[in-house]
Amino acid sequence: MSEQRSTPTASEILRPTSAGARPLAVFALAAMFAAMLAIPASASDRWFTVEIIVFDDLQDENLDAEHWPVDPGEPSLQDAVELTRSHGGEPDETVRAFQLVNRADLSLHDVRNALRRSARYRPFLHVGWRLPGLPHGVARPAHVSPRLGNSGTDAAEHDGVEHPAVQGTVTVSLARYLQVDVDLLYRRPESGEDAASNTAPTRFRLVSERRMRSRELHYIDHPLFGVLILITPLRNAPEA
Questions:
Q1: What local confidence, expressed as pLDDT, does residue 20 receive?
Q2: What are 89-96's contacts with CB under 8 Å, separation 24+?
């Protein structure tokens, strides 16, 4: 049986631990997004921006607090769609499904920076993409892969050779509420002692289903890493 552990709240995660730093409250972020235009839930042409921050928990005590399977399995990539960058020569307002949002246009910079100031958490992936709101069973998963951590993202900012990484899928579907299905395999870099003994597990899986509303910042928890996710409606739906 796993030992009981203390699960931090979203407010605790977003509160910097460095001396003199002002706490970053979740309600302040909500106010920042409240001015965005809401699109009726019944609209068939609803499009959304999905933004995620993946971070690891540096407290090693969580590694020993639970029994981890040697082989956690692999997320299925069947029907998964690769996230792509904007095509060269397209106008700025062109929006395509599963197109990555430019780094400057992401909304959660303050949240990422708060995590980076924390002594406990380390963000290593921060990306966003666009997609239409489709029913469950029709919506296709986005492929989240280690390659998204290259070229100027947080993963490239860490010292050392090995960096944490995730591989798997994030699926967003729409009914009365938004539903998010997450299946991510987290690869934890080995420490020198772990690599020598070859006993500590380095692969961990997070499978979660979450119902949520747009413009709400949600925290999906795992003992060793976590995912913050924000879904916001696009002001104008792109042409089909």
A1: 38
A2: 94/238, 95/47, 95/130, 95/234, 95/238, 96/130, 96/238
